[in-house]
Design goal:
Shape: globular
Strand content: 15-25%
Helix content: 25-40%
Largest sheet: 11 strands, mixed
Order of helices and strands: HEEEEHHEHEHEHEHEEEHEE
Distance between the termini: 67 Å
CATH superfamily: Alpha/Beta hydrolase fold, catalytic domain
Length: about 300
């Protein structure tokens, strides 16, 4: 009886630990395959949505790890930014993990026992993408929106050198994180912040660095020129916003740092349309999704591409 019970427990544990694959409820794009993977990690079930080109590339593809906003599902994030275009048009894998209970653990080094360590979770899915799916370990990119962007910044600090380049929307450096941030091998980085952001104040507060200082922090890490070159994007749409771009160049690391300031903009993803009025205006003067990918693909872990 004891051996039978033990066997049943062992089989049950094995079934829980097994990866489950299922179709994801993402709006499909032509020549893009979408699937969901559910894994048991640190004792909790975690879901990841994958978007990949239908045709296997001849060389290992790049991978963009895209972290959703607070309480956002991977499916919602994929549709919000129309992530399928990145697989269709650029041959990239887009990998969208979901936060446990909708909240990324970006505020502390190690969360309480009731909170999974999201650093370890992200490590695991990155390792799995390289070993199981053959993505290019030199072209790993990360980005996010809101809470997912804050988690991206934490990952960059605590896993220096793992990510070649990153992009964040609606996020700034936490002051205490900056104090302990590992910048020995900094990534290329693009920030997007709205001056009228009601969630994360553009000018910062007691917890957050100002948006300009957050970009300057990573420019110093990359040994870039201290004074950025500022330009204005064409005002293509009369939507109450304009966009300024600060570009830090001449970086000794071979990387680059950029800050897109959306004048009149809120806590929103540029180019997207599915936002509530309480988050402020969304600029349509540029498409953050494709702009990000064009920026990311310039860089690898060895440095900038030729």
């Amino acid at each position: 009886m004891r051996s039978t019970t033990a066997l049943r427990l062992l089989l049950g544990a094995a079934l829980l630990a097994m990866t489950q694959l299922a179709a994801a409820a993402v709006t499909p794009d032509e020549n893009v395959v979408v699937f969901r993977k559910t894994i048991l990690d640190q004792g909790v079930s975690r879901s990841i949505v994958y978007l990949r080109p239908r045709e296997a590339p001849s060389t290992p593809p790049p991978a963009f790890f895209l972290l959703p906003y607070r309480n956002g599902t991977a499916d919602d994030m994929a549709d919000l930014v129309r992530a399928g275009r990145l697989a269709r048009d650029y041959g990239a894998w887009v990998i969208i993990p979901e936060a446990f209970t909708g909240l990324w653990n970006y505020k502390m080094l190690i969360g309480p026992l009731t909170t999974p360590n999201d650093l370890e979770f992200l490590d695991r899915i990155i390792d799995d993408a390289v070993s199981a799916y053959g993505v290019d370990a030199q072209r790993l990119y990360m980005g996010g929106y809101s809470g997912g962007a804050m988690m991206t910044l934490r990952y960059l600090c605590e896993r220096p050198g793992r990510i070649a380049a990153a992009t964040v929307v609606g996020a700034q450096m936490i002051r205490t994180l900056a104090d302990s941030c590992g910048t020995s091998r900094p990534p290329a980085l693009t920030f997007v912040n709205g001056i009228e952001d009601p969630i994360g104040p553009y000018e910062g507060n007691a917890t957050l660095m100002p948006a300009v200082d957050s970009a300057a922090f990573w420019a110093r890490a990359n040994a870039c020129s201290t004074i950025p070159q500022r330009s204005a994007l064409p005002d293509l749409v009369e939507d109450g916003t304009t966009v300024l771009v600060d570009r830090y160049g001449d970086c000794a690391s071979g990387k680059a740092v950029q800050l897109y300031t959306v004048v009149g903009g809120g806590h929103t993803w540029p180019g997207a349309v599915d936002f509530t009025p309480s988050l402020g205006l969304t600029t349509q003067d540029f498409d953050a999704t494709t702009t990000f990918m064009q920026f990311l693909l310039q860089f690898s872990r060895q440095g900038a591409s030729p």
